[in-house]
Design goal:
Chain A has helices at 2-8, 11-38, 71-80, 142-146, 172-176, 198-201, 208-212, 229-236, and strands at residues 57-62, 91-99, 104-107, 125-134, 152-154, 160-162, 183-185, 190-192, 218-222, 239-240, 252-255. Chain A is of the alpha+beta class and 262 residues long. In chain A, strand 7 and strand 8 form a beta hairpin. Chain B has helices spanning 21-44, 52-68, 71-76, 85-88, 99-128, 131-140, 149-182, 195-221, 228-259, 264-274, 276-300, 305-336, 357-377, 382-385, and strands at residues 7-8, 343-344. In chain B, helix 9 (228-259) packs parallel to helix 12 (305-336). The chains are: A alpha+beta (262), B mainly alpha (389).
Chain lengths: 262, 389
């Protein structure tokens, strides 16, 4: 059978198909490569083994850029298998609307995953903006402090993680987090939270939410690298963190943070 | 449905209340333990002779409740089988990590204290009974049958020393539970250095009130005469600790309102809408002010023992309910305000659920069953019934 097909191909046809395959493969790999390069976290892709002592991750959120599309929150749930049918989020988008009567309306329906509905007429609104929220991966994390068995911990590269095989599910860390960034994973029976996509960043990729953001409101990078985009913003812009008075020292830095945001 | 329970803006992850009615039970039960133990040490340490009739019973009550103190916690854990890790690999910066050790230490103290207080009875029973009873009591006596005057005197001395250690450990056991909440800076309703001492005072109050009620009920069941002197003395201590308790609880609220920090709006909303009934109504009015007035009258009125008995009983019932409301207002109230300080949620207890009301009721009934069994094995009243001093 195969022999028959081969027999039917002329030499010219064979060469043509061969060329197409070669061109296609080259172009395809070039496209894939360009996508991968775009999603590389640090400017220098890692060479060999990942060494967590060489990095300290940081995250910048430019609230002036966020358009509230919710792609980040959606991408996060997809990437990290966060249940879609439960009110649990590793990242979410909040909408703030200051009305003409100075009332402030805050909402985040389904974490902003489905976007936002205009339920207040534009003429009644004084100003409005979106604020993406995510675990702050605090330098002084209260969740790590309160864990009775040490199942949640700070990594050398500055990420707060949960050991799902060790967590007893007491939920003290959920109480201890001032930012509401933690939730209880009913399937695992443990606490759960944002990892800054640790499985991706240690391979030189960006967190899913950062990659999904179409306007560059979320910027991720290495605080130890003076040339990283995160450091460039921190050096230039006026930044703030959430609830600085609590002494948690967040590593998510906000540009254009309004006083209403907590 | 969920939307109706939420007011304002809460962080999306806050839609579910994490610590349920079981976690309300935990400080309630440890409070009763600490209170009952401290009541017994009024006799064992401070030599208040009038407390003697209930001193040993108070120890058994403390043990009965102590044995179930871990149950609500283990039931609540996502991985109860890993709970023991809190003993093996405690993370020392966590206020919760000390629980296993403090609990175990205290359990040992209470058991030793009981053994020393009952040793004479145990030995007598072992010597006077036959068959499995003889075996049981011999084992309980640890096959040490020396009840000479000197041995008993040594027992008493050791018991007193143990009780002296016991008071700070009871205070620590419960003050520490207060710190579990008081040390959470994320929650403005919990975060106050007053929390451990408030917990301790309300613990003593609830323990004494429970002891009064159990004493009255058991005396009625045993068809014995109530020792009014003992009862009124307990009522007197209840009254004193009620004053300390209310002063601290009000101090917390007053300073919160007076300082009026960022969180005051949401705290005011919590107090005026979410827990208004359980806080002002049950915790303060029913649980403190009414008993305070009734117990004051008990102290003033001369004679009329039956009236005083009724007033003390009512006060104790109210106090026991009021302290439960206090635990509720702390544990549930603290979770009903959003950490965004912009909204509130509502806890709706479920009845049939592993974290529901039914297991809570079961866990609250078990210590009474344990107590009945304990009093059958180690009758705490024996010497009183015979009228032997």
């Amino acid at each position: 059978m195969i022999g028959e097909i081969k027999m039917k191909l002329s030499r010219r046809e064979f060469a043509r198909i061969g060329c197409r395959v070669i061109i296609g493969a080259t172009a395809g790999s070039a496209i894939i490569e360009s996508i991968v390069t775009n999603s590389v976290a640090s400017e220098d892709p890692p060479k060999g083994e990942y060494d967590w002592k060489e990095h300290l991750w940081g995250y910048v959120i430019d609230t002036r850029k966020c358009i509230g599309c919710g792609r980040c929150a959606n991408a996060c749930k997809l990437e990290n298998e966060v249940p879609f049918d439960e009110p649990v989020y590793r990242t979410w988008v909040e909408r703030y609307r200051e009305l003409k009567d100075k009332d402030v309306k805050i909402d985040s329906p389904n974490g902003g995953i489905n976007g936002f509905i205009d339920d207040v007429p534009a003429e009644e609104i004084n100003k409005a903006f979106y604020v993406p929220k995510i675990c702050n991966h605090c330098e002084n994390p209260p969740c790590v402090q309160v864990c009775p068995v040490g199942a949640t911990f700070s990594t050398e590269d500055g990420v707060v993680l949960v050991d799902y095989k060790y967590c007893i599910g007491c939920r003290y860390c959920i109480q201890g987090c001032p930012y509401g960034a933690r939730y209880f994973n009913t399937e695992k029976g443990t606490a759960d939270k944002c990892t800054w996509c640790y499985h991706r960043i240690t391979k030189g990729l960006l967190p899913a939410c950062v990659q999904a953001c179409p306007v560059g409101a979320r910027i991720f990078g290495d605080l130890k690298n003076p040339e990283s985009e995160v450091n460039k913003i921190l050096d230039k812009e006026r930044i703030n963190v959430l609830k600085p008075d609590l002494g948690t020292k967040p590593k998510v830095y906000y540009v254009g943070l309004d006083r209403e945001v907590r | 449905m969920v939307e109706n329970l939420i007011w304002g803006y809460i962080y999306p992850n806050e839609a579910e209340i994490q610590w349920s009615i079981l976690i309300v039970l935990y400080p309630y039960i440890t409070g009763l333990v600490a209170g009952a133990f401290i009541a017994s040490s009024l006799y064992h340490v401070f030599g208040k002779k009038e407390i003697r009739p209930v001193a040993r019973f108070a120890l058994l009550t403390a043990l009965a409740f102590l044995l179930v103190a871990t149950m609500p916690l283990l039931t609540h854990l996502g991985h109860p089988e890993r709970g023991i890790e809190i003993m093996f690999t405690p993370h020392v910066t966590s206020a919760m990590s000390g629980f296993g050790y403090i609990y175990s230490f205290y359990l040992i103290i209470v058991v030793l204290e009981i053994w020393l207080s009952f040793r004479e009875d145990i030995v007598n029973k072992a010597l006077s009974s036959h068959g499995w009873k003889e075996l049981l009591y011999s084992v309980l006596a640890l096959f040490s049958f020396d009840i000479s005057e000197k041995a008993l005197h040594d027992d008493e001395k050791l018991a007193k020393r143990l009780a002296i250690i016991g008071i700070p450990s009871a205070a620590f056991l419960h003050g520490y539970v207060g710190f579990i909440f008081g040390g959470i800076k994320a929650n403005p309703w919990w975060s106050t250095p007053l929390m451990p001492i408030i917990f301790l005072m309300s613990a003593i109050v609830s323990g004494i009130a429970l002891l009064i009620l159990l004493y009255i009920v058991s005396t009625v069941f045993r068809k014995q005469k109530i020792d009014h002197n003992c009862l009124q003395s307990l009522a007197h201590y209840l009254w004193i600790f009620l004053i300390l308790d209310v002063v601290l609880e009000l101090l917390e609220i007053v300073s919160m309102k007076y300082e009026s920090l960022e969180e005051i709006d949401i705290i005011n909303r919590l107090l005026s809408e979410k827990i208004a009934t359980t806080f002002y109504g049950v915790q303060l009015t029913l649980g403190i002010f009414i008993p305070f007035v009734l117990l004051l009258l008990v102290g003033i009125i001369k004679n009329r023992e039956t009236l005083k008995l009724i007033m003390i009983s009512i006060s104790s019932i109210f106090v026991v309910i009021g302290v439960f409301a206090m635990r509720w207002n702390v544990v549930i109230g603290g979770q009903e305000i959003s950490k965004s300080l912009s909204g509130t949620m509502t806890y709706v207890p479920v009845f049939y659920s592993i974290e529901g009301v039914l297991p809570a009721i079961i866990i609250l009934i078990i210590p009474f069953i344990i107590l009945i069994v304990l009093t059958k094995i180690l009758p705490p009243w024996k010497d009183m019934d015979k009228g032997v001093e």
